[in-house]
Design brief:
The complex is a heterodimer. By secondary structure, chain A is mainly α. Chain A is built from 10 helices and 1 strand; from the N terminus they run ααααααααααβ. In chain A, helix 4 runs antiparallel to helix 6. Chain B is α+β, with helices and mostly antiparallel strands. Chain B folds into 3 domains: 180 residues, Alpha-Beta Plaits (2-Layer Sandwich), CATH 3.30.70.20; 193 residues, Alpha-Beta Plaits, CATH 3.30.70; 45 residues, no CATH class. Chain B starts with a strand and ends in a 6-residue tail after the last strand. Chain B has a 4-stranded mixed sheet with strand order 12-1-14-13. A two-stranded antiparallel ribbon of chain B has the order 2-7. In chain B, strands 3-4 form a two-stranded antiparallel sheet. Chain B is built from 24 helices and 15 strands. Classes of the chains: A mainly alpha, B alpha+beta. At the A-B interface, helix 2, helix 5, helix 10 and strand 1 of A face strand 8, helix 23 and strand 15 of B. Strand 1 of chain A pairs parallel with strand 8 of chain B.
Chain lengths: 230, 519
């Protein structure tokens, strides 16, 4: 029975979450695209937003990039480049730590603002509140996984030998759940929360991350639109 | 030369009584919804005053409109494209106005007025429409209505900065005028250029600036970009909204609601033909005081056969050209030069223009002997209660000469008509001095004073039957929060073209193109 739970968590659940993410996003943009906005509340409150939003967004962008590197680049590759394991981990902890604490500080300010500013709180939907809380949880989990569970409790643990391998296997549809069994518990919860966020991503305000206005850089300043002839 | 048609408006401030009918009817029509309570697509400001939102003309604070960069090229004052990305402005827009620059919308707790008899007289207290809690009112729409002349309005009106100190706060010399404001539907709209999503656009056929509610992603740069602060952010739908120039009415040949309901009949709507190829060049005029004339220079004579031929070649339909020929706007702005743009120095080429008001100098042109010595108005205009400098700061970027000429003309026309109706002699040569003839003075009088409906509004009907796709239009998105509504007509047709095998590039080129700016 223990295996059944592990199979569910490390084989079935990731695909459910990613399926929800992919099909949900397609649906959101194909059918419900008019509701895709950043849901800014800057009109209602400005000062706390300034610090919180900038800290969080810059932090989370670097955190995301760090995850992509950590998960997708195999250890063999950095070994081939001649980067020793210790240096890699210290580098990851320092850079990831800076970005992670920026994101945490930003999200704490943003959440404080969302829950205590009356104008912002009263105009928030349940999903807005949920997004804030879940980001707080996952950032705290991620930081404590790296700095407590990884660095202090299990210094011998190297996520690049099991967790990252498993994560790459997901993309080739062949995840080996046994790899996840040796992973410390906080890492495990962090991974599950991560997939949960991906699962509800398309149905919340988070979709604004996918609508970056690249075309603005190349566009003519004044846009004219003509009614098409039928 | 590329001829485009622009629907535009002139407001005769001489007749505005500040009754706010335009604002109220506009609000009833467009913005009486949750999220839009604080939006006034049309508002009437008492001048001098702080305006709405507070001190909107202070562009060193709000960073609206365009400026010339070191190379003399146009650049958004709030920062160019790179600046928006590099400085993380998309995460936080530092120049965006806050709700407190407008006001927190409220309603009253009317329920307490009903119910059982109580010991004390019940009072309906103000309740915020955002938080639902009781609130203390310290700002609102028209908070300084009719309070011109107070220290606050003199001190906080940016147009007063360049006026001699002796007028400021000198109570006997205090003056007041009304300034109704709406979206300017600019030729070089800074809001359109600011929109990262490409949701804001000018309509090709009439130049009305609209926000595509389906494409708006709520980045809010339009709010900052618009120097007139006439783009608002709906806190409920999280999208931008603005004056639509009542386009559904315009398409039927009807005037906007604000114009239709104006009790003073001060508003005029008509078409102007302009040369889109020269807009950029005109906007880059380095001298602020010349921007008005540069804009005037863009307008084309609708009776010139060459212009008509080019207009037809550029896709302007015949009805629009005919309306442009009868346009009251052309008459006031170009032929008589009595109408001026609001703050041309923002370099957006605004298309809602104003006839400056005459103000008490009664003795000079209504007192004894005034008809006998009409030339007395020339020195008199300088003694006007409303300083010419103030009007020039508002309407011509500081060019007082053109304002004076317009006021001479208006005053002389009054003297002439007064002499005529009271059977007195009037030397027609006096009219000559201000560029009027007996015929043109009479016609100007009819246009300004009688202001018949058909003279005020000359609006071409949209040839919608040729372009409308009824099934797609049905249930199209208005200003509601939209979760999965029918595709807007524009996008629908693009999809249809894609299905018919047209390449994305071709469909794009047909549906969107920049008429003015060639990179």
């Amino acid at each position: 029975m223990k295996d059944a739970l592990d199979i569910f968590l490390w084989v079935i659940f990731p695909y459910l979450a990613l399926g929800s993410f992919i099909f949900g996003t397609i649906g959101r943009f194909a059918i419900f695209h008019a509701g895709v906005t950043a849901e800014s509340s800057e009109l209602l409150e400005k000062k706390q937003l300034m610090i919180g939003s900038i800290l969080f967004h810059i932090g989370i962008i670097f955190v995301f990039a760090g995850h992509v590197v950590g998960v997708l680049i195999p250890k063999a590759f950095t070994d081939w480049l001649g980067i020793p394991n210790e240096i890699y981990h210290i580098g990851a902890l320092v850079m990831g730590g800076i970005a992670g604490f920026m994101a945490l500080a930003g999200m704490m300010i943003l959440s404080y603002r969302r829950f205590t500013n009356k104008r912002v709180f009263k105009t928030s939907s349940f999903s807005d509140l949920m997004v804030n809380v879940s980001f707080l949880i996952i950032i705290v989990l991620g930081l404590s996984a790296s700095f407590i569970d990884g660095a202090i409790l299990h210094p011998e643990f190297n996520y690049r030998l099991n967790l990252s391998v498993w994560a790459r296997q997901i993309f080739v549809f062949h995840p080996d759940y046994h790899l996840m069994l040796q992973v410390p518990i906080i890492f495990k919860i962090h991974v599950i929360c991560g997939f949960l966020i991906f699962a509800f991503f398309p149905y919340t305000r988070l979709v604004h991350a996918l609508t970056l206005p690249w075309q603005y850089i190349f566009r003519r300043p004044i846009v004219y639109r003509k009614r098409p002839r039928v | 030369m590329k001829v485009k048609a622009q629907i535009s408006m002139v407001l005769n401030l001489d007749k505005c009584i500040g009754c706010h009918t335009c604002s109220v009817t506009c609000k009833q029509t467009w913005t009486n919804r949750p999220g839009a309570e604080y939006m006034w697509f049309n508002n009437v400001e008492t001048r001098p005053g702080v305006g709405y939102p507070k001190k909107w003309e202070d562009e060193s604070h709000y960073k609206g409109g365009w400026k010339l960069n070191r190379k003399g090229k146009l650049e958004l004052r709030a920062g160019n494209k790179l600046n928006k990305v590099a400085l993380a402005k998309i995460f936080y827009n530092p120049d965006m106005p806050n709700l407190d620059d407008y006001y927190e919308p409220w309603t009253y707790d009317y329920q307490t007025l009903f119910g059982k008899e109580r010991k004390h007289q019940p009072v309906a207290r103000a309740k915020s429409q955002i938080t639902g809690e009781y609130m203390k009112l310290n700002n609102g729409p028209n908070w300084d209505d009719d309070l011109a002349g107070s220290d606050r309005s003199f001190g906080e009106d940016p147009n007063m900065q360049n006026i001699e100190a002796d007028i400021k706060g000198n109570f006997e010399k205090t003056f007041m005028m009304y300034l109704p404001r709406l979206c300017e539907h600019c030729l070089n709209a800074a809001c359109v250029a600011s929109c990262p999503s490409g949701a804001m656009y000018k309509r090709d056929e009439d130049g009305i600036v609209l926000v595509d509610q389906e494409r708006c992603r709520g980045w809010r740069f339009c709010m900052t970009g618009c120097p007139y602060k006439k783009v608002y952010f709906n806190w409920k739908t999280n999208k931008a909204e603005k004056c639509t120039f009542c386009y559904p009415r315009i398409e039927e040949g009807l005037p906007t609601v604000c114009s239709e309901t104006c009790v003073g009949r001060i508003r005029y709507i008509g078409v102007i033909l302009y040369d889109a190829d020269r807009v950029a060049e005109a906007c880059e005029e380095p001298d602020d005081t010349k921007l008005y004339e540069r804009q005037l220079d863009l307008f084309l004579d609708p009776n010139d056969p060459e212009v008509i031929a080019q207009a037809q070649a550029d896709g302007v339909d015949m009805e629009t050209i005919r309306c442009a020929q009868k346009s009251p706007i052309y008459k006031m702005a170009v032929e008589q030069k009595i109408a001026f743009p609001l703050h041309p120095e923002y370099r957006t080429m605004p298309m809602v223009w104003y006839v400056p008001p005459l103000s008490p100098i009664m003795n000079y042109f209504e007192g004894k002997n005034s008809i006998k010595y009409p030339e007395m108005i020339f020195p008199a205009i300088n003694e006007m209660r409303i300083p010419v400098e103030y009007l020039a700061n508002l309407l011509t970027g500081g060019n007082t000469e053109v304002i004076k000429n317009a006021l001479y003309k208006l005053a002389m026309m009054r003297l002439y008509m007064r002499a005529r109706t009271s059977g007195k002699d009037f030397d027609p040569e006096k009219l000559d001095r201000v560029g009027l003839t007996e015929k043109s003075a009479t016609s100007l009088y009819r246009l300004l004073a009688i202001a018949k409906y058909d003279d005020r509004f000359v609006i071409p009907k949209a040839k919608k039957e040729k372009v409308e796709h009824v099934e797609e239009e049905q249930g199209g998105l208005g200003y509601e929060a939209c979760n999965g509504c029918s595709l807007a007509p524009v996008h629908g047709s693009v999809l249809r073209k894609a299905k018919a095998g047209e390449s994305g590039k071709d469909a794009y080129a047909e549906s969107f193109y920049g008429g003015i700016w060639r990179d």
